[in-house]
Amino acid sequence: MLSIVIYDSQFGNTEKIAQAIANSIPSAKALRVGETDPEDLKGVGLLIIGSPTQGGRATVALQEFLESIPTGTLTKTKVAAFDTRFSEKNSNFLLKLIIRTFDYAAPKIAKTLESKGGKLIIPPEGFIVSGKEGPMAEGELERAKLWGSKLS
Ligand SMILES: Cc1cc2nc3c(=O)[nH]c(=O)nc-3n(C[C@H](O)[C@H](O)[C@H](O)COP(=O)(O)O)c2cc1C
């Protein structure tokens, strides 16, 4: 089964999570958005998409990529979505309000993948960064490997 992780990353944290997930899936590869054409996704068995949460959504590049997947492309594809994000628990009042209002990127990615025909096989997941530019919070890379190992 062909398995691909497609991600975007501004500061490198989501890239690390994407690679940890790809390493935990037999013969999977991680590709940055832009390295693959949405038309090439036909025939992919397992597609995992991840993005930093920015303003409650995926990055613009990743959103554009998702929107450009032709409808029905993923009808035979298992899909999963993840993001990186701030922890609501450790946020100040304003950030908590932003998070509660706009939510995170992964649920929106999952919805779009389903709208293209993909079969969601695990709930959307978020991995916590300790600041805007990282690093990932303690234990998150290990948690990503574990999450990835449940997918295949
Ligand atoms: C412009 C911008 C907007 C952001 N908005 C949110 C947000 O709405 N919610 C959140 O949890 N984190 C937010 N963050 C923090 C990012 O999720 C964090 O920078 C990201 O996880 C880092 O991943 P990267 O190293 O792959 O870019 C934002 C960061 C930036 C730069």
Break the fold down into its secondary structure elements and pairings.
Layout: E1 3-7, H1 13-23, E2 29-32, E3 46-52, H2 60-67, E4 78-85, H3 93-102, H4 105-115, E5 119-120, E6 125-128, H5 140-149
Parallel strand pairs: 1-2, 1-3, 3-4, 4-5, 4-6
The structure holds flavin mononucleotide.
Task: Supply the key terms.
globular; Flavoprotein-like_sf; binds flavin mononucleotide; 152 residues; Rossmann fold; six-stranded parallel β-sheet; 5 helices; 33% helix; Flavodoxin/nitric oxide synthase
Question: Could you give a short account of the major beta sheet?
Answer: 6 strands, parallel
CATH homologous superfamily (4th level) name: Flavodoxin domain
Shape, per Cα inertia axes: globular
Helix content: 25-40%
As for the number of domains, it is: 1
The average pLDDT value, as a whole number, equals: 96
| CATH fold field value | Rossmann fold
Class based on secondary structure composition and strand pairing: alpha/beta
- Please trace the helix and strand order, writing H or E for each element: EHEEHEHHEEH
The counted number of beta strands is 6
Weakly predicted, low-confidence segments: none
Q: What's the CATH class, please?
A: Alpha Beta
| CATH architecture field | 3-Layer(aba) Sandwich
Radius of gyration: 14 Å
**Straight-line N-to-C gap:** 9 Å
- Give a list of the ligands: flavin mononucleotide
Descriptive overview:
By secondary structure, the protein is an alpha/beta fold. It has five helices and six strands; from the N terminus they run βαββαβααββα. It has a single domain, classed as Rossmann fold, CATH 3.40.50. The mean pLDDT is 96. It is globular, with a radius of gyration of 14 Å. It has helices at 13-23, 60-67, 93-102, 105-115, 140-149, and strands at 3-7, 29-32, 46-52, 78-85, 119-120, 125-128. Strands 1, 2, 3, 4, 5 and 6 form a six-stranded parallel beta sheet that branches. The longest helix is centred in the first third of the chain and has 11 residues, at 13-23. Helices cover 33% and strands 20% of the residues. Helix 1 packs parallel to helix 5 (140-149). The chain binds flavin mononucleotide. The site of flavin mononucleotide (FMN) has 20 residues, from helix 1, strand 4 and helix 3. Flavin mononucleotide is lined by residues 9-14, 52-56, 84-86, 98-99, 102, 129, 132, 134.
